[in-house]
Amino acid sequence: MFFPEVLAGEALAAAGVTVVSVVVAVVSAAAEPRGVGKMINAETFFTPEEQERIRQAVVTAEQRTAGEIVPMLVGASARYAEIEIAGMGVGLVAGTLASFVFQDPWASIHLQLLWPLAGAATGSVFCAIPFLKRNLIPKGRITEAVHLRSLAAFTAQGLHYTRAHTGILILASLLEHRVEVLADKGINEKVPAGTWNEVVQILTVGLKSGNACDAYCKAIERCGEILAQHFPRPPDDQDELANKLVIER
Q1: What are phi and psi of 188, to 5 degrees?
Q2: CA distances from 86 to 92, 136, 142, 157 (A)
Q3: Tens of pLDDT along 189-235?
Q4: Which one of 74, 99, 144, 249 has the lowest number of neighbouring Cβ atoms within 10 Å?
Q5: Distance CA 77, CA 120 (A)
Q6: Mean of per-residue pLDDT scores for the chain
Q7: Cβ neighbourhood burial of 238 (10 Å; 0-12, 13-18, 19+)
Q8: What is the per-residue burial (b if ≥16 Cβ within 10 Å, else e) of 63-96?
Q9: How many whole angstroms separate alpha carbon 74 and alpha carbon 248?
Q10: How many angstroms separate the CA atoms of 121 and 130, rounded?
């Protein structure tokens, strides 16, 4: 199931890519990022104007450095279909038991089958609700899924192909309330360990407070400042990657 991502992870680990990841604490509905308490749609999470602000933040940050910054937003890092299947199974059992409890000897077999079918459908629907689903997924499964999605995105966006290996990915996964930062080996050879914790903190605080766009811009700006100290922009520097917020489901 995760074979391509595992290969990507092994390749990046061998290349010296490091990861910084934190969990965004589950907060009240009023304080959650826009859309997280409902059906999560990364494509509509930011308005076109906010996406343009983030794009401009990347352009501005990269004017000072040879580094390449890619901000990314995903609705979920995995499908987690096992959660909905488990809910369907529990609902099926509950519905079957209910059919015996409320059995009507005059009812047809088709009507009796409605109980387990309704139970299975209800269980599946409830387990698809983002808030419930997130709290039913094992923490280890979430950590693995977000990490693998980040590694796959790093390679898919071409960050490991930059000339001086100075690519950095800032990924936020909405369903899981997680942020992960990946930096290529060229950066890790010069930047002290723990440097990117600040960037992660900036973005997670912004997501929790509902200021996601401002937080992305500040996180990108901070990345630019850090990279400029170690990788100032040379006269012949070329913009190797697109300057935009990458959005995927």
Answers
A1: -65, -25
A2: 10, 10, 17, 34
A3: 888 878 899 999 999 999 989 899 999 999 999 999 999 999 999 88
A4: 249
A5: 25
A6: 83
A7: exposed
A8: ebbbbbbbbbbbbbbbebeebbeebbebbbebbb
A9: 5
A10: 16
Q: How far apart are CA 131 and CA 164, in angstroms?
A: 41
| Residues 187 and 166 placed together within one structural domain of the fold | yes
The band of 1, judged by pLDDT with boundaries at 50, 70 and 90, is very low
- Closest C-alpha to 189, from 16, 60, 39, 4: 16
Mean pLDDT, rounded, for 155-169: 90
Q: Same domain, yes or no, for 86 and 38?
A: no
Asked whether residue 145 is assigned to any structural domain, the reply reads no
| CA pair distance 152, 50, nearest whole angstrom | 25
- 232: its two tokens: 């100032």
**The pLDDT of residue 6:** 38
Would the pTM count as exceeding 0.85?
A: no
Residue 236, CA distances (Å) to 61, 65, 69, 99 in order: 17, 12, 18, 74
| 45 vs 165: CA distance, rounded Å | 31
Q: What pLDDT band is residue 160 in, cutting at 50, 70 and 90?
A: confident
CB atoms within 10 A of CB 25: 9
Q: How far apart are CA 13 and CA 62, in angstroms?
A: 25
Separation of alpha carbons 208 and 30, rounded Å: 10
Is residue 98 situated within a structural domain? yes
Q: Are both 113 and 223 inside the same structural domain?
A: no
